[in-house]
Design goal:
globular; Uridine Diphospho-n-acetylenolpyruvylglucosamine Reductase, domain 3; five-stranded antiparallel β-sheet; alpha+beta; single chain; seven-stranded antiparallel β-sheet; about 290 residues
């Protein structure tokens, strides 16, 4: 990494509004605010420990390619930078099997509002005592601190994967299939992603009369809704094709924007107190309210 963490902290400084930017795939800072960029590059990969350390400005695709050489992968949503993906906090469509993206973050070195470097978490899975600060940074949109570098937990890359479609009930497939990686539904068609040994995948596909396809569905980009997994049944009355729901997860990719909703007063108060504690002057990514963009 050409830019060190110390250089990054110095660039953030301790006064005046400042924003952080990566590749610009998820959000763009205000034009009249000073912009900084996180360190870029992979520092090391420990295949035996299933961990990787890299700068937050490293493209996710570069991390994916490097890990593939070791037969591993990381549950960070592709596209943009690692830091941007973590800051936005939106997991990919494999969350059903891989878990939330925040679970992949073991350690983060970040710069706080005072321009100081802070280490959160540790390099191993069982390293946290007390509050897990890493989880607070994920999804904060850079309003609590700017991530400089991270240690991520990796996972084995499946030897085989295949998408299938079916007209069967998605909840029937969710409970009947053995550990599906993803179950998506648009009101008429169910898509299933299966991973593992090709013979096991073929056996499950035959048992449940699944049809192999080249890829999953195209996801609507009008809005990304968050619902309780049990509430997804309410979409049975929606127009087929107007959405793609992640069954068992609760995320809905819709053709329409997410309906406006008032935040829970308790949640809003907690959010305001956390922001006041971490960034009392509001200098980090000014104009962004992490609670309203979730």
């Amino acid at each position: 990494m050409d830019l060190t963490l110390e250089d990054f902290a110095a660039a953030v400084g301790s006064t005046g509004p400042v924003a952080i930017a990566g590749l610009g795939t998820r959000s763009r800072p205000l034009s009249d605010v000073r912009v900084v960029h996180a360190p870029i590059g992979i520092e090391w990969i420990e295949p035996a420990e299933m961990t990787i350390r890299c700068g937050a400005g490293t493209p996710v695709d570069e991390v994916d390619a490097a890990l593939a050489e070791h037969g591993q992968q990381v549950a960070v949503h592709s596209g943009g930078t690692v830091g941007g993906a973590l800051a936005v906090g939106q997991s990919g469509i494999r969350r059903l099997a891989y878990g939330a993206m925040r679970d992949a973050l073991l350690q983060a070195n970040y710069v706080n509002a005072a321009g100081k470097l802070v280490k959160a978490g540790g390099p191993t899975v069982k390293n946290v005592s007390g509050f897990d600060l890493c989880r607070l940074l994920v999804g904060s949109h850079g309003t609590l601190g700017f991530i400089g570098d991270v240690i991520l937990r990796t996972r084995p890359k499946a030897s085989f994967e295949q998408w299938f479609t079916s007209d069967r009930d998605p909840w029937e497939l969710l409970t009947g299939l053995f550990r599906p990686t993803s179950v998506l539904w648009d009101g008429a068609t169910t898509w299933v992603l299966l991973e593992g040994d090709d013979r096991d995948v073929a056996e499950m596909a035959e048992r449940f009369l699944l049809t192999a396809v080249s890829s999953g569905p195209e996801l609507p980009t009008g809005g990304r809704w968050s619902m309780a997994p049990s509430e997804l049944v309410s979409l049975r009355v929606a127009s087929p094709g107007s959405f793609v729901a992640e069954i068992g997860v609760g995320v809905v990719h819709h053709t329409r924007p997410r309906p406006e909703r008032s935040p829970d007063p308790v949640q809003a108060d907690l959010h305001a107190r956390i922001k006041q504690e971490f960034d009392p002057t509001g200098r980090l990514n000014p104009g962004i309210d992490a609670l309203s963009v979730r």
